[in-house]
Amino acid sequence: MKLNKYTLVAIAAAAFGLQSCKKDFLDKQPFNQATADVAFTTAAGAEKLMSGVYGGMYNDYHIWDYMINGDVTADNAYAGGDNPANIQIDLFTTNATNGNVGRDWGGLYSNIKNANEVLENVPNIQDAALDAGGRRAQMIGEAKALRAYFYFHLVRLWGAVPLVLKSPTSLEEMQKPRSTVDQVYAQIIKDLEEALPDVRTTAPNKGFITKGVVNALLAKVYASKPTPDWTKVNQYADAVIAGGYAPLSNFDHLFDGAHKNNSESIWEMQYDGWGGPTGRGNWMTSVIVGSGWKRFCTPTNDLVAAFDAEGDVIRKASSISFKNVSTEGWSDDYWSKSNYPFINKYRNDDLANSYIIRLADIKLLKAEALNELTATGWSAAKTIVDEIRLRVNLGGTPANSQAAMRLAIEKERRLELAFEGHRWFDLLRTNRAVAVMNAQRDGNGALLYNISNANLLFPIPQAERDRNPNL
């Protein structure tokens, strides 16, 4: 068993503590940690290894930092709170000793280590039960898809990163250099396309890898490559749309806690309340909702203005709530405390799952693909955009050209998917991040940022650079 061979890329997660008023909510072992006595000899042991990959996702990155990286880095949220690492990310002053950067790198590589354990060991387990119903191939497909997903986050946050595809057995393998961005994307696509034929079509809940998840990831990956392949985006988006998913008629039902694993959900984190093995969704609720102390991830003036300019009262109400916190002892640079905004999508203690991918995301990606494939594709894209808008009682988009439709889709994705971790990555892949962020103003109209392309990626964590001179 080679669980201890990833020190260069995984041990950093333990070196960075949670800052400020964040609780030590990672003190529990993953609920389904593989055990050495059975992990490599039986079908039951293989299942424990597979569960370890999913269980490893209940870490800071996937339950919390995805929103810091996707929304606070972008124009959807201010850092809020008093966490210096979050504030650095918000203000584009992040350096190589930032605690979030270190734990995210370590957390994602730990996830990759778990996936690699499945891929290295499950093919060799001599237990006929693994081949009943194709479960062995299914697990290998799930592990490949999950590894691809973890690398998808790494390459978008850091650019060129080391490709660790097996357990290191030598110092040379431990000190791998960074692969190019194109090489990382090629590996992501290889893993996903190899996984697609073998993963299941349906699962007990939306927390597992299915064909719908893999098709959705392929659509997102092909849209995010340095040179997008819009034909592939359209192909895989169509496969998702044909996969039996259906939008909820009521937008707020997506977030009310009573409609987990609904027909619109493609992949979502599964939480089970305080005390349960995956009881962390409510922790996120506690740090972004309510008063008493200054919460994290405060909605921006610009996002509120965007909802208001669109007359988008339904999505605004589902996404943001306002409270009078004038009697609280903290201050804020951006908002009046008499009408202070809080994220509302995760409002239900113990009941709030969080979406990784849902159907509206993929439909809007298809609209984007149609718009980019031909100069007149904006007309077909408009049908999809208008469908998304109709659910929240908005009229059709006025966009009537390819250029106008690009901005219309960008805006629609922002308002539809706010606080779900997508905005920053949308701005990166469309090369709009610098222009959009440099136009941001605070509540008094003052410009907030002056960034360049040099600010768009995280630095490699200093601890990793110290361990590995090839970084």
TrEMBL record:
Pfam families per UniProt: SusD-like_3 (PF14322), SusD_RagB (PF07980)
Keyword terms: Cell outer membrane, Membrane, Signal
Keyword Hydrolase belongs to the record: no
Domain SusD-like N-terminal: 24-222
Domain RagB/SusD per the UniProt entry, residue ranges: 337-471
SUPFAM superfamilies xrefs: TPR-like
Protein localization: Cell outer membrane
Keyword Transcription regulation: no
Family membership: Belongs to the SusD family.
Protein name: RagB/SusD family nutrient uptake outer membrane protein
UniProt lineage: Bacteria, Pseudomonadati, Bacteroidota, Sphingobacteriia, Sphingobacteriales
